[in-house]
Amino acid sequence: MNPLLSPFDTAPFSKLKNEHFMPAFTQAIADARAEIDAITNNPEAPTFENTIAALDFSGKQLDRISSVFFNLNSAETNDEIQKIAQEISPILSEFGNDITLNEALFKRVKAVYDQKDSLTTLTTEEQTLLDKKYKSFSRNGANLNDDKKKRLREIDAELSKLKLKFGENVLAETNKFEMHLTNEADLDGLPEGEKEAAAQMAKAKDKDGWLITLDYPSYIPFMKYAKNRALRKELSIAFGGKAFHNDALDNQENVLKIAKLRHERANLLGYKTHAHFVLEERMAETPEKVQEFLNELLEKAKPAAEREFKQLEDFAKELDGIDRLEKWDASYYSEKLKQKLFNLDDEKLKPYFKLENVIAGVFKVAEKLYGLQFEEVFDLDKYHADVKTYRIYDENRDLVSLFYADFHPRAGKRGGAWMTSFKSQYVENGTNVRPHISNVCNFTKPTASKPSLLTFNEVTTLFHEFGHGLHGMLANTVYPGLSGTSVYWDFVELPSQILENWCYEKEALELFATHYETGEVIPMELVTKIKESATFQEGMQTLRQLSFGLLDMSWHGADPTGITNVKAHEDKAFEGTDLYPATAETCMSTSFSHIFQGGYSSGYYSYKWAEVLDADAFAYFKEKGIFNKEVATKFKDNVLSKGGTENPMDLYKKFRGAEPKIEPLLERAGLL
């Protein structure tokens, strides 16, 4: 009676118990293995259909179980789920290796690949899938000798466990820290809504006073508004020092092991570094090109960043006599300066961004661009009461996608925001199977007196993740392995980042930015200020993003075997981008989940890379009208629906008519 082993369309969350997962994984792996054996032992000669396509459609049940389990491990985890994750991850890694290191199977794949020039009837999508399948073998050890294959398996099993442990430590550190305040004077400067949320958090834990945590909705407002500099310092150091305390939750050893194992793996496969291995399958192509790209932007942004930092230093000195600006002063004085320059306070904006209205707004934007209709439904199973569920239809009332939206923090949920899927889109037996997509964010919960009101930054985050969501929802490919966000990693941020642009446009804001009490549409004066302030401290922001990209490349773009001190290595990587004095108690690398747990290793630069794409693409929308149907249809048909079926630069050129230029980004950022 295991619900994961009975056929299911939507994930059967309410029927799931932790004890279901291991038996379901075991059975699904056995079934997938049988499917692989059937392909391998097929007596007929290898063809695209009986080998490449069959391989892409194999293991569907295992994929579904994995997506349910690992999404729960991110959004609704507990000790038992984390234990299962540690147990199953190396088993899944081993199974993946059993496929890519299966000589008889690779022989069949290679036989089809070797005759690809004569397979003239293959579509572009089929040719792409053939290339991808061949490379998934060759890039993962199929051509190695037995000793090297054995070592590759050991590395992959160890990496899968290390990455999980890294993430568990970060989550445990985030949950462990609490700043318990009992003197109301310590909350001076904090807006009433934030104080109420902190009091509510304390009450939920049977404590008096107020609780401040390292979750973004609690941490960011305190750093931005709290007058008490000593408490800002305490909170900043706790946040920046996650998993950097030389204790059981310390990640320094994990960072060193992950970097070194990745390097060894790349060398085994014939690549100079992990970055050389990764970037072969990216638009950027080589570490040299990434470095060149980051350095070009650094050259443009650094003078502006230094001017902005000097302005902030002078302002803090003039306002409060601050002699040396520290990291824990950054948000506080930036917010004060922004208010002075633009008379724009996030607290003035928040009443216009009630969460439900912003959700309705992003739906409306998607409707105007792509003809989508959204209906909240209450008959879909969900994993937590906070999750909202929707069915999405096109203009003909055909189902496009199911959508799960999970917007508030809780103890079992990691920080940040992400898009994921519970089911991929593909075409099977003539039926276009539609996807099940999820957005997960961490926005302030409603309080007794106020609904969930978003900062403008949170509004852009919601639009960003929904952009990824559209990439998944509007997928229209034949093969699941090329569907939705299965694209080059430095192309995956284009759909998300371009959608953020609508948040700055009057025509879009007027659709949803209404005062939660009065219903008043956001005044034009505030819209103008949002646009004017959009480039505020853009030089410093760019420098910050570049520093993360450079840190990523420092771990993965060179031989890390000589690195013994994580902090010293990081300080060196940050040398060209540091504005604030260094703090001995903090270390970015030990909680840099994007590159040590998620999929961004050697790929963090792609946020900036995608900004070049999105600024250039949005310039096209601006030229024709931000809701222009012709441009929107071109974007949908050539980017959102196509997944990884073609080279991303070819897809971009089909949409835009030319390769992207860097000038629109520099212009938008005020760096020209």
From TrEMBL:
Keyword Ribosomal protein appears in the UniProt entry: no
Q: Which GO terms describe its biological process?
A: proteolysis
Peptidase M3A/M3B catalytic domain sequence ranges: 222-670
Q: How is the cofactor bound?
A: Binds 1 zinc ion.
Q: Does the keyword Cytoplasm apply?
A: no
Source organism, top-level taxon: Bacteria
The positions making up the signal sequence are none
Q: Which UniProt keywords apply?
A: Hydrolase, Metal-binding, Metalloprotease, Protease, Zinc
One Pfam family recorded for the sequence = Peptidase_M3
* InterPro entries with a match to the protein in the record: M3A_DCP, MetalloPept_cat_dom_sf, Neurolysin/TOP_dom2, Neurolysin/TOP_N, Pept_M3A_M3B, Pept_M3A_M3B_dom
- GO molecular function ontology, one term from the record: metalloendopeptidase activity
* Required cofactor names: Zn(2+)
Q: Which GO terms describe its cellular component?
A: cytosol
Q: Which family does it belong to?
A: Belongs to the peptidase M3 family.
Q: What is this protein called?
A: Peptidyl-dipeptidase Dcp
